[in-house]
Amino acid sequence: MTCEKKIAYAESVAKMAKVLYENVNEIGSSKMITHAIAEALFQAVPIHSGLMSKECEDLPAAKMTKEHFFPRKKSADLIMEQVKNGRSVNRITNIILSRTRVHRVTSIQNHYLRKFQGGNYANWQEEYAAAGIELIPFERKNAYTYTVESEQFSTLGEAAKKYGLTPDGARYRFVSKSKKFSNWKREKK
After folding, report:
1. Where in the chain are the domains?
2. How far apart are CA 92 and CA 46, in angstroms?
3. pLDDT tens, 28-57?
4. Contact status, residue 39 vs residue 82, Cβ threshold 8 Å
5. Is 73 exposed, middle or buried (0-12, 13-18, 19+ CB in 10 A)?
6. From edge to edge, which strands make up the β-sheet containing 135-137?
7. CA spacing 20 to 30 A to 133: which of 77, 125, 148, 182?
């Protein structure tokens, strides 16, 4: 999803929050509104923080879990507070964008962190420290090596560039069963 679409989604959630708050008497419960906002945050495409736990270092990205380091319920409460205080849609949109950020952690760490969220910690950094989780910069690791004839490439992009192809065009050749591309091979590292 593009950055523009993420912003548009966050803006629509901000507008929804304002409309729901204006109609709280008809809805009957501000808790219901907060729950709807929390669910909208859950449905939002996450924004990666660029950090991952040290334990994820050798895992492919697909095996990592996206951990919302700002709990959705607390975030929804904050958003409702901002709506009640008359903040602008733009301001609320920015809060929503900040609250959809995630770190990459293991599944076990994601569950373990719940014990520390919403407790006596001032921020997510303290929660992670208390849980014993060290964060490091995320670096995407390529799962394959690519070979065309006898020339080896460490990334799909390198092979695509060398042969004047798009990455999708090169990927097609590497996975094709056609004899025409039998000299295009990719192997798991």
Report:
1. 3-137, 144-188
2. 17
3. 888 999 999 999 999 999 999 999 999 998
4. no
5. middle
6. 65-68, 101-105, 47-53, 135-137
7. 77
